[in-house]
Structures are given as C-alpha cells and as structure tokens.
Predict the structure.
Amino acid sequence: MHTGNLADALNYAILSHKTGETTSIPASLYSFSPGEVLVNWTIDYDFPPVVGNLSHLAGNYEETQAIFFNISATDPDGDDLTFNWYSNISGFLSNMPNFTLALPPGVHEITLNVTDAHNHTVTRSVVIVVNKIENNPPVIVISKPNSNISSFPFNTLIEFDASASYDTDGDSITFLWTSNISGIIGDTSTFSFALSVGTHLINLTISDGKTNVSTEFLIVVLPPPYLAPSINIVEPNPSLIENQALKGIIYINGTASFPSGNIRRVDYRIDGG
C-alpha cells in the first residue's frame, strides 16, 4: 500500500504514466480522509529518445574504405527525431540515421546526438581508427632496346619493350615514352618507332595512379653514309666532242644526283668560264 499526501500521489502518477494518459487514483490507497475520493488529471511528461549504442562501428578501416554508419533509435512519445554525426577530425558528417562515408586517416572519435521534439538529446560515441594505405611504387623493366646497343642506322624501326614492368600492389600501370627531339613516341608497354637523326634522350615514365617512376637512356640515330653528288652529261656526248671546236647553238642535257642530300643548283661552264 502507498501512503502519503496528495503531492506524493501526483509525483507517483507522473513517474508511473506516460504522456496523455488520464489516471484515476483511489484516495484510500493513500490514506486520505474516510471515503473514496477520485482524483483525475492529465500527465504532460516527455520521455527522451531510446538510442542504441555504436559499438558495432568500433574497429580499424582503410582510408579509402566506405564505412556504413547506422543507429537504432526510437522515441517513446512518438516524436520526430533529428540526428547529427560528428568526427573530432572531419567535423560534421551527416544528419541522417544511416549513411556511408570514407574518412581520412587518423583516430576518429565519432559522436552522435539524437534529439526529439522537446529538445531532449541523447549522445552516443565510439572511436574508430582509419589507417593510411601505404603505396609501393611500380618497377620499370626494359628489355628493348638492348642496353648494349645505343646507336642505330637512320630509318631503323626501333623496338621499345617494357612489358615486364610491374606493380607490387597489383595496381594497373600506364606508360609514357618521350624523346627530347621527337616528343611523345609511345604510350603502351611495347611499340616500334623510327627516330630522326640525332642523339635522343629517351624517357619512360610509368604510373600506378598514385606514384610515378621514370628512367632515361640515350639512343643515337646515325645519318646515312655520305655520298658525293654526281653529274651525268647526256648531250653533247663528251666522248664525241673531246678535242673538238664547237660552234653555233649547243644544247646541253644531263642529270645530277646527291644521295646524301638535296641538289640546290647545277652550273655549266665552258672553258672554265
């Protein structure tokens, strides 16, 4: 049996009943004056949200890993709830009960505030560790051109091959070959290219998308052998006019060639004139 004054009865009712209930209390339970007195009132009392914990989020994650943040929360009074997630490193994260996000490396203290319509706030927190991914650079392996051969004749189709290059992390790699004279000469692991005459500084850069690695080597492309220009006089036939005096109109016809270059001019002189 409960005993006490009317104030005690009201306090008991407030602690024992939910918002909106109408409660009847027989006075005899509380030793009021003889006879039964019926006391009716409406309790206006709001209960805070009921929020689960975040222990399921605790653990270690990689920096590129998408983390699924979620919480179970209800309100005994049926109020709408608002959610605010924070990280001590990244700041505000989301205002949704469930969301997915990748966090930067570091030790994150995650805080969730759940608030009902009467500004009752329940706070939950958890610590998660996001680890930085260590990237190993790719490795260049060139099989062609042969390192023992540094010079090639002019107009040679030179083979380039770096197909044995690899990435220890298993990442895909890209290739870029350049010449200080010819510019970009290839963007695949293997190809053939005829370089111009000169000393070429060849650069190969490979990338795994995170780290670039380069190497350089020289290739000399030799000019073709030098051949002196030649002239062939067809008319008049030199063998027929040797030691003869010519007069009148003389027609001269012939050909000239220069395998090592271009002919710019041909001069005909008579008697050294």
Q: What stands out?
A: The mean pLDDT is 82. Residues 50-131 form a domain with the Immunoglobulin-like fold (CATH 2.60.40.10). Residues 21 and 42 are 6 Å apart (CA to CA). DSSP finds two helices and 20 strands in the chain.
